Every structure is written in structure tokens, then in C-alpha cells.
Amino acid sequence: MYLCESEIVELEKTVEPTWPKLVEPLEKVVDRLVVVWGAVNHLKAVKDTPELRSAIEEVQPEKVELELKLGQSKPLYNAFKAIRESSDWEALSDAHKRIVEGSCDKGHPPQLKEAILNGVSLEDDERVRFNKIQQVAALIHVDVSCLLLHLFMKLLYNDEVAHVIYHNTHFASAWSVCHRFIRRLKHELFAICDLRCDVFETFSENRDGNGCV
């Protein structure tokens, strides 16, 4: 992330409203961050540990701060605006226009629409408040992810649910059949969405589903 930050600072100093001088170098910066953080999320998904969760929580504020710095960069935003308002605009391909105007996903550079949503037009106290809200939202996301993992582990190591999972080759489907178990965990996050129990009803050895948790 420190490397990405230094590259953003350097790009802001040298940016020009052209595709090679703006979009291409910016995409490299964003890709670096996406790839690195994607590897972290993948590791968390396949081999989660308390130590890993603690490490993620420690660096999460820095990641959010970097994303905010990128999304709220006025030099980059102004360069995108200059491309949009230039006489060369009509010569751009439809794909390039979509990137500039901001209808792509988060894996792409902060286009005009994304920059506005990221708070580039905010000033002083408004920007400070917006950034605090973003940091809190990121922490909530991490907390909810950990809570869901804890909840799922309780379900996974329940004998009845383990039997369901054993007979279901699709992990997501195995999770979706646990609706009735989730509702029983009254002091945790439950009833998150309308989950189906058809696979549970097919493979469960306990036909009434009582006393499983």
C-alpha cells in the first residue's frame, strides 16, 4: 500500500489529460491494490485464523485511507474532466467513454461518477466527516464478516449440518440450507436472508430438525 500511495502522489504531480498519461498508469496502481488485497481476502476465505483477522483489522484503516485518497484526488478528477470536455472526446471508443464517465466496477480507476461518489467534491469538515463514516463502514464490514464466519463455524461443526454438507457438493448451497439453524442462534446474527431448506429436508437424518443446535 505504501508503494501504491507513492505512485499516486507521483502521478498527481505528472498527470496529463491523456489516456497514456492518466488512465494507463492509474490502472496499474489500482490493479496492484486489487491484486494484493484480493490475495488477502482469498487467504481469509480458505484459511482464516484469529491472527490473520487481527492483521487485517490492523491494516484496514490504511487501506480505506488509500482508497479515499485515490477516489478524492482532485488532480486526477480534473484530468478526467478535461478528457470529457476535450475536442477529442468523440474520437474515443465507447469503452473508453464508459471508463471516463464512470460506469465500470471497482476494479477500474476512479472515473467521474465514482469520484463524485467517493467525495471528491466535498471540502473541509464535510470531507472529514465523510471519511470517518467510510472508516466506520469498513470496520463494520470486517466485524460482520467475522461474525458470519463464527456463525458458520458453529453450523459447520454441528453433526446434523455436517451430514447435509457431506451430501452437497456446492458449498454455497450447503450454507443456504441452514436457515432453521441460524434462526435458533438468538444472540448472534440470524435470519440474514430468506434461505432455503430443501437440501436439509432431503439429507437430514433428523426428520423434525429439533434439538440440532
From TrEMBL:
InterPro entries: OpdA_N, Pept_M3A_M3B
A molecular function GO annotation: metalloendopeptidase activity
Superkingdom to which the source organism belongs: Eukaryota
Record-annotated Oligopeptidase A N-terminal domain positions: 5-127
Record's protein name: Oligopeptidase A N-terminal domain-containing protein
GO biological process, any: proteolysis
Coiled coil regions in record: none
